[in-house]
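Per reviewer request, we include the raw input and output of the structure prediction for the construct analysed in the revised manuscript.
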Amino acid sequence: MPKFDIAGRAKIWFMISLLIIIPGLISMVVRGFNFGIDFTGGTIIDLKFEQPVEISTVRDSLRPFGLDNATIQLSGESSDVAASTNVMIRTVDIGENQRKEIMAGIKSNVGNYEVLREEKVGATIGGELIFNAVMALVISWILIILYIAYRFEFKFGISAVIALIHDILIVLAIFSFTQKQVDSSFVAALLTIVGYSINDTIVIFDRIRENLKLHFRRGSNLADIVNRSVYQTLTRSFYTVFTCLFTTLALYFFGGDTTKDFAFALTIGFISGCYSSIFIAGPLWLTLRNWKK
């Protein structure tokens, strides 16, 4: 039996999470989020340059105007991975005077161009789509509870979903603190985090179920079984999270500017998911069992 009592220190792990979640909720109400153009709408500018240009060059020309987070895409028949003459810029809504300054800056720093299209667009992720996404997430949680209740027991399902909500709140709190941009890739990151976290949690719950059959009748208490199960799967949990973190950190430090926020969300989510699987899910299940008694 491991000497370090993870299950017996459940209140400590819960308090650590609350120290991030509660200020995060306050920050969400007071500061909100830095929503990207997917949520707020913006301006699309389609340009055709005389010579092929790179995305990094166009982005550098937008940096003095605070628009270096704009979505920049290469297009056209002559486009390749490195450069193209056709460039589409999607940025926040800009006024007429600012637009003239930006266009002059692009012409000065990048080269001559022809304007193929310039228009204002609405948000691609409207209120209805956000509502549908939240409903889909809630329905998935209900299905997770029902499935785990069938395969394990109802309290396992409740604990697993609370651990998932914990991970999402942690990521939302960090993004509210840092005011990093929230766009469609952020939604994809949240769904990825949910899939990762529930997988790790199920592995631990499966081991708890097996140990309940093997050891509970021999006199072991529930806290000992939770600790034993966590330690038996601890190496796997660490291997999994470090493997994922190597990828997301490489994407964050060496990827393009448009992938940094996505990689940052995954990094925070994977760390939180590993923490919740080890220190939240099992002790929470134990707390629910003892609460009933």
